[in-house]
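Provenance and format

Records in this collection were gathered into a single text stream. Each protein contributes a sequence line and a token line. The two records reproduced below are adjacent in the stream.
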Amino acid sequence: VNNCLQLVIQTSSITDKNKPFEFRINKEQSSFHNRLLQHDLEKNYSGRQDNTNFGNSSSITSFPVLQRTAEEKILNSDRLTLERQKLTVCPIIDGEDHLRLLNFQHNFITRIQNISNLQHLVFLDLYDNQIEEISGLSTLRSLRVLLLGKNRLKKISNLENLINLDVLDLHGNQITKIENINHLGELRVLNLARNLLTIVENINGLDSLTELNLRHNQVYSIKDVDTLPCLQRLFLSFNNISSFEDILCLADSSSLSDITLDGNPIAQETWYKHTVLHHMMQLRQLDMKRITEEERRMASVAVRKEEERKRESHKQTLLKEKKRLTICNIAHQWEIQQNRVAFVASLNTDKDNEPCKINGSAAYVFPEESRSLDTILSSAVQGLSVLESHLVEVEGDTLYLYGSGALECLDRNWSVQTAATIVTVSFMFIEFDEIVQVLTKLKTKFPNSVHLKFKETNLVALQQFNALAQVNRIEQLTVDPQGNPVVSFTLWKYYVLFRLNHFNLQKINGIEVTQNDIVMAERLFGILAYVASSELPHYRMLSLLGESRRKQFHYLLEGKGKKSGIGNEESSDNRAGGESTARAMLNYSTKDFQMENLEEIKERRTLCQTYVENLVKEAADINMKNESLQKLWPQMFIELVRDAVVGIRDKNSYMKLCLQRIADQKE
């Protein structure tokens, strides 16, 4: 104990029974024990130490017996100092039952014994010995000061009967746990410095404790200190306390006025002093320095700022955790979707797993197969349904889109400033066929986007890269191998360079594109554009091209710009500053679009078939009528001639009849 301690022990002296004696411990002295021994009681007796004689008892030969002269007993009847006597055991002190102060400092004693008869002992000093266990004190009920510093103790024990103990010094031992002291309600000073303590606990019940020394331990957590109603001074220097939460209970102590935390990791933090002063307003000293009102005010301001920073940090942490959980949920849903597709595909291809009839009875169906597909696959994400199924995030110059629902964000009203900052667009856990449908929106929404990233987008075929030609501009393309089997193709990069040649790609998957790569791409796939443009019917080609492309196409067909095949065609288009006409023939239709086309083709086929059938039927009827007419025409012609001859036989009658018909028609 290094601060000023005044310990007054009310007891009787030799000359005056009503006069108390006291000893003071001053701050300037070097150690607790030297200060205690500086008292006049020790000084008066120190000159007579050499006169103390030890003899051997006839009955007990294993312990030395203390013998003092009558004169020494009269001069120092209640005190005895035996320091630095090279004692290995406690001697038998016979006839000294009236002793109140006993000093065994700086010896080699290994066990406390032979003092049980000193029932009036008030002060016992066993500093700097080799004691391994506290024992032999059960009868010393009057003991007020027990000094056992610098020994070999590993445990606090056998103090049950020392209920009047006022000072307990156990520093410099090997104690790992505070225990068995809750009954010491009169204890005012407890010194446990330089031990092996890691947690401060089990100190409730020390209602009179005013000073607790825990310097030079391994303490990282403190508990129960707020239950000590009289604690004023707490010394925690040179421990392992790293956060204020580890000593939070100190803030609830109303009596604590002095505390030291220097030498701990927490003392290196910038917020250390401000936080401690803000939460412990009753402190008068911190790390042995007096606290001013200005420091308290500054501490309050600093703590408020720190709390705001922590709240913001906590908010960001929660947002990051929510983002992580949302992405996990999206990934689970994506996995379920892929498993469902694979499962359905396997059912369509593997007919052997279907239930079949054997001898008129149905084959056994496993319970797992009888359950619905959704039930089987949805069980993996049970409990995550409350999370979002998609996520849109702008981080720096990158727009992250997770889940197919995130594509709807492209229809938002983006601010001009935000849209202009987007350089990279990242797609994750979205079917590429769904991405194709919104690629054209990237032109208008994010005019400065030059980098596209694809991860878990189900890119499986080279022709899917044809769809990227719809984008306004691409300088970098990143296709993650995870969830994109097309990356396993050896020539996929060369196909991208060939098909998107008009973009002048700079990087693919982070690797610079060289001129040799472009030449190799043309060698590998150049003929493909020629085949696509030459084999496609003209009407179909015109339907795929825009107005400007149609003019170029007609120009090529007329032979005005075509001298050396497809190469000159592409040079003409390159002068126009866009995609070559031949490459434009290599397009990509999504599965949904193909399905729609199939339905349309079926309808057209049905309509054409019906129309042709009607035409055939009409032609057959006409042919039948024509054949009938050919058969009947000779007879009909004869009858017509005969009727005409008969009618004009009477010329006058025939004329009148004709005139009458003409008159009737005029009327």
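Adjacent record:
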Amino acid sequence: GGKDRRSGLILTIPLCLEQTSMDELSVTLDYLLSIPSEKCKARGFTVIVDGRKSQWNVVKTVVLMLQNVVPAEVSLVCVVKPDEFWDKKVTHFCFWKEKDRLGFEVILVSANKLTRYIEPCQLTEDFGGTLTYDHMDWLNKRLVFEKFTKESTSLLDELALINNGSDKGSQQEKERSIDLNFLPSVDPETVLQTGHELLSELQQRRFNGSDGGVSWSPMDDELLAQPQVMKLLDSLREQYTRYQEVCRQRSKRTQLEEIQQKVMQVVNWLEGPGSEQLRTQWGIGDSIRASQALQQKHEEIESQHSEWFAVYVELNQQIAALLNAGDEEDLVELKALQQQLSDVCYRQASQLEFRQNLLQAALEFHSVAQDLSQQLDGLLGMLCVDVAPADGASIQQTLKLLEEKLKSVDLGLQGLREKGQSLLDQISNQASWAYGKDVTIENKENVDHIQGVMEDMQLRKQRCEDMVDVRRLKMLQMVQLFKCEEDAAQAVEWLSELLDALLKTHIRLGDDAQETKVLLEKHRKFVDVAQSTYDYGRQLLQATVVLCQSLRCTSRSSGDTLPRLNRVWKQFTITSDERVHRLETAVAFHSSAEKILQECPEQPEAFNEVEQFDEIEAVGKSLLDRLTVPVVYPDGSEQYFGSPSDMASAAEHIRERMKLVSLKKQQLRQPEATTPES
């Protein structure tokens, strides 16, 4: 890095005690002399041959070698002699003698005298100067520079080859150019980083000194290295930018090809094995278990499709990302791929959904059919059991339950028809996704099965309705039977109550003929009510007999109701006849008594006949006697009208009348007794 007084570069050749290889030295000199620029070389070199640790023959050989290596560039050779004695005459004479032939001046000088020719600031400490120089540092920097230069030059060639190859040729050639040599031999980022670090180091040494910050001028080789490094870095950045673009294009093309390949895989599977799976699944099953098995199989098919649909979602996101990048040349192809993928996936998804809905509808249809079948079985079982109710209320309850079951069956059949029609409508649309396959035969089997189930349920329901009609008629007749039996028993109770009322309350005979006649008329109306009650009971019992014959059963109550009715009616008629006889006797008694008691004394001829009084007395006695006699029934039982006090009161009233008649009789006889005496 030092310079002589002519601004020529100083080249120092340190020699050592070991044998020096001239070949290596020649190569080293060639390398060192290749570093400076031509301008620097034109100013010449001052060569310092440090022979203090070497022999004269070696020094001489080195000096002579300079003639062959750099004869024109060397202006002065300073041989630093050792402290030991050399033959001055020989050495001086030798170099002086060879001056014209060598082409440069050779000076033999001591180290302390070297400053006569070269400024101390341009000499290193080895020669008593102040020039700071670290050979290992220079060597390391030079190695880094050489490595960077080599790697960057090689990298530039590779990048240029890659970039130029990418610029030339058609798309097919671009695709064929992708091989193992596509990637550079070294990492461009690493080389660029090395170059930047080297340039930064070189630029830093220009302004900052080492070892305390003493300012110094950089060596010419370093000044020369800076533009070389900068030029290489600029070229590298340019080629690397182009290379990155090429890589981006290649990466995009590779990604596009991968997407296209994956899209075709998805499309081929969905239109191939996926569609074939759906083509083979056309049945709906003939029961709940069969439909559930088909649903399970369909879920397995959906699971396989889900894996491909997940790939579709991923591919769609990748395509959307590429579309957002906005590369015009790929937009059409990407949109076409996206459209193709979406069409196939949506069509397949629609087919899966249609199949799932069809199987769900079939499952619901079979579920409703099974429920309806169970309802019909329950209704039929209820109809096959003979009815043996205890009373009319239980029959009404059973009839209500029967009607509810029939209504439930009607609703179930209506629901089955709705489900069946919905399923038939879906099956009719199955051909729309059959990919040209004729599904008429398969659909016909499904349609026949559905219609067969609905027709079978309709027939079973019709049979049950017919049986329900028969059972309803029978149960209504039984209700009527029980009602007739209950009403007949009620008629017996009513007739018994009338009989009891007749015995206990119909006891008065009247105070006169008019009142007795009124009582007699009331009694006849009372008898008419009893007669109507008896006739009503007889009619009910006759209806019971007819219903029992129709139902082919024996009544449990009408067997003893008719004898009871007849027995009570017989007792009532006997009691009524007795009551009529007493009232009629009372009417005759009161009429005769009132007639006699109301006659005037001026008409005695009307009472001449004693027989009239005797007849009244006889009627009165007879009436009194009947009041004490009980009513005797055919079974030998006896009943009295009213209580003994009631009968005593009625008898007392009759006796009162008989006394009045007797008194009247005496009054009439007194005039007859006084007439003969006068």
